[in-house]
Amino acid sequence: MRISKIERKTNETDIKLSLNIDGTGKSEISTGVGFLDHMLCLFARHARYDLNVTCVGDTYVDFHHSAEDIGICLGKAFNEALGNLKGINRYGDIILPMDEALILAAVDISGRGNLEYDVDYPTQKVGDFDLELVWEFLIAFVRNANITLHIRKMAGKNSHHIAEGVFKALARVLSAATKINPDFANEIPSTKGVL
């Protein structure tokens, strides 16, 4: 099974994270950041990854360090759990509706960390969560997961729906890209022979 456990402790955060890519969508999330908990729970469910995250962070400052460091840990766990990348589909894409919001997402598990993110929000916050932290979480994730990710908002008026669409789209494209293709189960999906 493709499983990883990451522990990371800094002066700003103390994180324990476990990821099972071959899971069923179960999650136990406690980050101290309510909106991020919600996003990670639905991410796990829609990717069908089992994900456990605990984070004790300096949320009295703001949520920046927690969001970024959880992205780092999830990216490291994702990269480690995928192992040698044999047999994966490698690519995934979706146009995902979330009520009035419409999100395009595409991923390449390329071995190269890159984020192209074209998402604007009508408000700066959802509750007490700064929406600029979605980008901070994602850039930390892709850099440590070594993936190329494109996310674009095609429509949307409600900031909560837009952010939720981003996380659901991320989950769905990663799920598609990490599935094992039985026709290529023992091959690296690259003409170079490595990713």
The Cα radius of gyration reads 16 Å
Morphology: globular
What is the ordering of alpha helices and beta strands? EEEHEHEEEEEHEH
Uncertain residue segments:
none
User: What percent strand?
Assistant: 25-35%
Which strand order do you get reading across the main beta sheet?
1-2-4-3
Sheet with most strands: 4 strands, mixed
Treating each run of at least 4 consecutive H or I residues as one helix, how many helices? 4
- The percent of residues in helical segments reads 25-40%
Task: Please report the distance between the alpha carbons of the first and last residues.
Answer: 20 Å
Oligomer: single chain
Question: Based on helices, strands and strand pairing, what is the structural class?
Answer: alpha+beta
Number of strands: 10
Rounded mean pLDDT score: 96
Structure write-up:
The protein has helices at 34-47, 64-82, 132-145, 159-178, and strands at 3-9, 13-20, 27-30, 50-57, 91-98, 101-108, 114-118, 125-126, 129-130, 148-155. Strands 1-2-4-3 form a four-stranded mixed sheet, with helices on one face. Strand 5 and strand 6 form a beta hairpin. The longest helix has 20 residues, at 159-178. It is globular and about 45 Å long. Helices cover 34% and strands 31% of the residues. Helix 1 (34-47) packs parallel to helix 4 and helix 2 (64-82) runs parallel beside helix 3 (132-145). With 195 residues, the protein is of the alpha+beta class. The chain is built from four helices and ten strands.
